[in-house]
Amino acid sequence: MSGNGAALEVVIMAAGKGTRMKSSLPKVLHRLAGRAMVRHVLDTVETLQPARVVVVTGHGAEAVEAHLGGHALAAAGRLQFARQMPQLGTGHAVQQAAPLLCDEGVVLILNGDVPLIEADTLVRLVQASAGERLVVLTVVLDDPSGYGRIVREGEAVQAIVEHKDASPEQRAIREINSGILAVPARHLKGWLARLRNDNAQQEYYLPDIVALAVADGVEVLGLATDDEVQVAGVNSPQQLAALERACQRRQAEALMAQGVRLADPARLDVRGRLQCGADVEIDVNCVFEGEVSLGEGVRIGANCVIAQARIAAGAVIHPFSHIDGEKLGVEVGEGALIGPFARLRPGARLGAEVHIGNFVEVKNATLAAGAKANHLAYLGDATVGERVNYGAGSITANYDGANKHRTVIEADVHVGSNCVLVAPVTLGAGGTIGGGSTITKDTPPGALSVSRARQLSIPNWQRPVKAGKA
Ligand code: UD1
Ligand code: MG
To answer: Which domains does the chain carry?
Structure first.
């Protein structure tokens, strides 16, 4: 995939401190759209099927290495780490990775804090290099201050000069180095060995390899992109927030391009992967986290938070509902009606046409088709049969202080209002539970079961009067 058939290797620089984040979390682990920035870079790189990826770590190295250790590339034995201590510049960073790299093909060099670079841009870079040319991804900025400037003679790139080292004429150049390069592997180690730190910051600058390539007669290409978002780096919470909005906007546009109807693309947050069938509608201020799928015709009301869940076709989630499947997941069946103000927790599995109304909490419970719990109720560790009607204010008492127990409510049971079902307990099919009952023993099918004090009326009841008043 390096353009000439030889191996592609990737170096991701992630050792910098990120002082301006003012955070104890290493900069590259700050999340964008729910994923650590360096994770975005690694996931994009993975699609290029590189032979090897080396992540250069330094500040917060243990945390960064632990975070990436579970990545598929690591499992495939294609991810390695190189520690850079202390951090003496970007050239020094790549020097630490160099012993792990081979000498043919292309080495693609990326920044861990430039999260939204896209695979096709990288493919263009690698193909332009073809293991022969040094290719720099550039962008023209209105305000280039702080960046390395691309110094050209005619079309040909001659050098990259860092802002702090640049002359006034060079500072007027608006084409800058994105920090992303594709380098012929057979030249890289030699150039790295020749870097010097006699510059304004006394650092080993990676971009200095451009001048070395020119001196060696190796062709240097500056490949320009007009997409600032792809090359935007994050140094501060302000830049992170700005890039988050740009990323969310792109995700929203992609969903709309598939036909998803968003009430307002500026008021959607997808922090993971959202898959949608045809004719899905999403109202404002919804947040989706982890893996969420919405079947055909699903409607999501305003202000819902939905994580790790599968919502089947035709289901409607009314406003202000909170659905979080965490590790167990949540399933909502076809045509189900959820909310407003519903809470579905891990292991909630709802069949077709189930109704869950306001202030109802469901956890680790299966509800068969047509079951309804419309108001103010709790169903935890329960198996609920078809067409069960579960009254307002009723709860499963599933926890005895030490262990959790299961409640089984068979098909067609009606549970009245304000019942306490003390688990483990089974309510037989078709039975009715009188309102206000505390049920501690299994109930027979078809029966009315009641457990509460009998109603009593004392006639002509005299209310107490205040002392001293006749
Ligand atoms: C760098 C480039 C500059 C370019 C800009 C684009 C150099 C000398 N300059 O500048 O031409 O316009 O990026 O954003 O390369 N890092 C290490 N170890 C180090 C230093 C940095 O791993 O010793 C990592 C950082 O974590 C970061 C990346 O390298 O991911 C870039 O470092 P940064 O300090 O942001 O470089 P800039 O000064 O912005
Ligand atoms: Mg930077």
So the answer is: 8-231 (3.90.550.10), 251-449 (2.160.10.10)
